[in-house]
Protein 1
Amino acid sequence: MENIITGLKQYLKETLGCSVQPVKWQNTGKMPFYMQDYYAFFQVRLFDRLCLLMVDQSREEQTPVTINKNRLRVQEIWADEVIYVRPLVSAYNRKRLIEHKVPFIIPGNQMYLPMLGIDLREYYKKVRGKAGLFSPSTQVVVLYELLRGIEHYYTPSRLAQVLGYTVMTLTRAFDELEGVGVGEVSMEGRERILRFKEKGRKLWDMSRDYLRSPVQKRVWVERLPEKRQTVQAGFTALDHYTMLSATKHPVYAVSQEDWKIMQQDRVKVLPIAEPYACVIEVWRYTPRRFEENKVVDRLSLYLSLRENTDERVEAALEEMIGGMNW
């Protein structure tokens, strides 16, 4: 905790020329016990504004929806601005915090203080260095480990038999995983060996910034062909996994290959939605690989919908992920 406060003071001095002296908030005991476990609270004066720092001291990163709800809970007692503070926040969650207009400071990295007209993003640093999104095949390897994996290590030839990619493609996937520090690659004899550094939820959190939406495009169609290789996706799948009822039109996912077959079957594509239309999502990898009873897997579904700004959808996605047996 002392390191966070020291880093925050130094960061504000360097960026804003503002010397601050955080003081422990005396009303912390009025907060629920779980809030006292998650956060430490400090009063601080920024220029002429008295603010309360809500310093996240939990090990795992919380969702922006949860952070905002907790911030509003604090403001039931504290009348002025509440600023969220954490040493590291993923790029995706930083974006979501800004969309929710949650003031935050990441010491040495970035700050967003809309009440003071401050939005310093030029100090942004990627938590895990420079890297883009994973290729579809690399993403499938990560999802396989998260959803089906029981092995201690993998080889390109073994995964090629399971996932249907070539050995060369999977060799490149190993390089991507090693390049961002998600996996460790070594040689045993003539075989390359991949070991993931983390398992379960920790691997998901480590990989999430590099994972992309599996959806390449969405198409309105009049109806599905009778012989179809589809699985439920989008809001239809979210309705299946949670209590959310968010769709009037059924949503299905197909691979690029299956979409080509459907077009050969002369499926009728619509320019706009019609009352009895459905949505076809064309995926970058086959949605049937990890399907659960004709429904796309939870992790791919999360990735396909995480850019949705509806708070009900965000909450449902977090409920779905939080309920997984990692």
Note: The mean pLDDT is 88.
Protein 2
Amino acid sequence: MPMLLQLENPNMEPFAEYWMGVHPQADCQIMDDEQTELLLKDFIHQQPETTLGTKVFKTFGNMPFLLKVLDVKDMLSIQVHPSKAQAAIDFEEENKKGIALNAPNRNYKDTNHKPELMVAMSGFYLLHGFKPEEELIAKLESKKELKKFSTVFKKKGYKGLYKLSLEMPQEEVNSTLQPLLAQIIPLYQEGKLEKKDEDFWAARAAQTFNSNGNIDRGIFSIYFFNLLRLEKGQAIFQDAGVPHAYLEGYNVEIMASSDNVLRGGLTSKHIDTTELLKHTLCEATHPKIIKASKTKSSQKYTAPVKDFTLHSYKLKKGETIDLEIKTAEIFLLMEGAITLQSKKTKISLQAGTISAVAFCGAIVKVKALQDAYLFKASTM
């Protein structure tokens, strides 16, 4: 991340996330044509219908997405996001209870849903939804320590299985997983496990998240969920209710403008099992790797939501393209160098820099000064 952003990092501090957008908790700053620094959300607020366009303004009232670069070195928490309708209800319920927005036990930070689409920038490993039935049973019965989950699954289905793993007393979590971990952790330490094997990630999770003699119950989910590897340029969509966790890799991600996250393990943060189960889609997930629709130099990643669309452009040195701006959009340059030019403004971008184009109907000419890899986040 520091290399991308061209930041000094002599102490090798971890840089995990780079956010761009107008969420109330965001402080994304821009410099306007008069070289004045201000928040992107304030700039849009000054002329909302002009910057967003009438359609987006009437539908959302603001830029409805967040763009993010994510570098996953340590496994991220198992999580689920609520639907838009339910998020609004539950946000108000927590307000009525007097739970502060910044309280550690607060589940709902806003009234929005948080569907996500990510594009891998490297080989990227993640967990995504429950394994299909036959595959799940085979996995559970291949581990003697997990066979009791197979019995529960056959009787009570996905919800009964997940409920058991979330509500099991900590002592039973420890006694169930300790024999399994005693077998796989030495293999992990000796480099004898492959990343395509759930045992690899279970062992890593144990070494990362176990504390004070307690084993993280999220390790069960590593065996319950689909384990995927995406190659660079491949994408996947996480809809409301789909449990998922990012395990390792580098990506560009676009999502609805929200910070509503319900966690289910592999974390030291707040876990509310009742709320998590209420929102989790307890059914088989058959992963759908998204292949972008392509033209000569552009790719378009679409998702089944109105909040966002992600475009990417691979340009050779000297190549130019004209882009019509349909709403307030964000450009993120991942590789190379380019210029962006409209009627009034011309700016240069180096890898890791961003530009917010906030005038609906403008035409922007993109010219590659070097071979370039550019992303454009939009609502359309």
Note: The first strand starts at residue 17 and ends at 20.
Protein 3
Amino acid sequence: MNKLQTPDRDGGVPLPRTLSAHLVEHLRRRIITGEYLSGQALREQDIEREFGSSRGPVRESLRMLLQGGLVEYAERRGFRVRTYTVADIEHLYDLRASLEGLVIASLAGKPLTAMIADLHASNVRMEACLVANDIGQYFAENQVFHDRIIAETGNRPIAEVMVYVNEVSLPVRYQVLRDALLTRRSLTYHERILSFLQKGDLLAARQETEEHILVNKTAAADIYRA
């Protein structure tokens, strides 16, 4: 199988990666950032030509994206970027709010000192991204914040469901966050959530988390309604 070398997260010895994983990374980024539009055809021949790949890794990468929910497949039409209706968007945001609320509730009785320190560090990095107007890293750090809380719960069923729901919603959330970047809204919510967690007020943290998600519901629906 074709292999590519990419640096590991610590900047140490490069780790071998399959060509399929390399393709998934690039195609996924293009879908999330809107470079590939909702409903756009993903033709295997075009991807092969651009990346110099054979048919096997391209098809495998598209199937991986299909499994993650960012791509759809239909007979005689092939693979396409996932499409969303306004109802889809509204349901996604309602579901995410409910699940994230359950995540906060699952923290009850757990020592939160280490998590709180990590969340504070995430907010600091997010602030730096805001100052640098780096939407890509700002968006990534936004997910780091929420993923850290999910990890602390140790609630595997919720974590597994959240992986899929978050993945499917990423293209929508990227557009909303990009449009709201200058308002600092997401970071402000993160700071409020962290403040309540530091006080041990999980009920207020849960309410703030749910509001954080639902405040963007109308904006997201309007984007796709337009």
Note: Confidence is low (pLDDT under 50) at residues 1-16.
